[in-house]
Design goal:
By secondary structure, the chain is of the alpha/beta class. The chain contains 12 helices and 7 strands. Helix content is about 50%, strand content about 10%.
Length: about 250
């Protein structure tokens, strides 16, 4: 069975690709829970029927590839307080260390690398993501810090240790069907169909972004003044607030 590890830059449809591959009957996702559910459901004639007939031999022979999803390297680890990039973070050492560890664990694996050009649009996308998770940085300072990260070296680093299968994010935008066919070809499985691919991350307006940034700074100020505890701060920062803020912005605009 082919084992493929998905790595690469964040904000390049990695989560959507992982969810798409989960739906493929010939691909296992490399986690005990996923293997259990996939193996069971593929073995039963009708998994919703308590009296269903099982064929476990058929199921075990059906899978052609296994996918291990490793979330990407965008800016590396973040400090949960203020969700900012660590000042002493070295992306080259981090990526090289990760590649070495994965090689020790999965020596026969291949890599699926989703590449995306690190341009201003890409950095803006990451900035929006970080603000939604609590960042208090202004856009200009964020851009300067982000551009110092040598993320483009990630692909070259993995090529030293693994066979790397490359797909480009821009081709997904230009021709989704061809991109998904090329994806399935890497896994040696049949094309599943574009209707199973879903775009997950919804964009937010400039006004909503400003409101989130204001809220982040307000909560950080409460934390610094010890009005709220770290535990409460993290709970408020991580709460699902996009829908609520969207309604507030619409009311203010109206």
């Amino acid at each position: 069975m082919k084992l493929i590890i998905g790595v690469g830059l964040g904000k390049a449809a990695s989560t959507s690709i992982n969810n798409y591959l989960k739906k493929h009957p010939e691909i296992l996702i490399c986690s005990p829970k996923e293997i259990y559910h996939k193996y069971l459901s593929e073995s039963g004639l009708d998994i919703n029927n308590l009296n269903t007939n099982f064929n476990f031999n058929k199921s075990s022979e059906n899978f052609k590839s296994c996918f291990f999803f490793y979330e990407a390297f965008t800016g590396g680890p973040r400090n949960p307080i203020g969700y900012s990039i660590y000042n002493n973070y070295d992306s080259i050492d981090y990526i090289n260390g990760i590649a070495k560890i994965l090689k020790k664990i999965f020596p026969q694996a291949e890599i699926l690398f989703i590449n995306r050009e690190i341009d201003d649009d890409y950095i803006k996308t990451n900035y929006r993501h970080d603000v939604l998770h609590g960042s208090i940085e202004n856009e200009d300072s964020y851009f300067k810090k982000f551009k110092n990260l040598k993320l483009e070296t990630a692909q070259n680093t993995f090529e030293k240790y693994f066979k790397v299968n490359k797909l480009d994010f821009s081709s997904l935008k230009e021709d989704k069907v061809m991109f998904l066919k090329d994806l399935c070809k890497i896994f040696d499985v049949d094309y599943l169909g574009e209707e199973y691919f879903e775009k997950l991350n919804e964009g937010i307006s400039r006004e909503e972004l400003k409101f989130h940034l204001f809220l982040n700074k307000f909560l950080m100020n409460l934390l610094k003044k010890k009005i709220i505890s770290k535990k409460i701060y993290l709970r408020l920062i991580n709460s699902k607030r996009i829908g609520k803020i969207r309604k507030i912005v619409k009311l203010i605009s109206f």
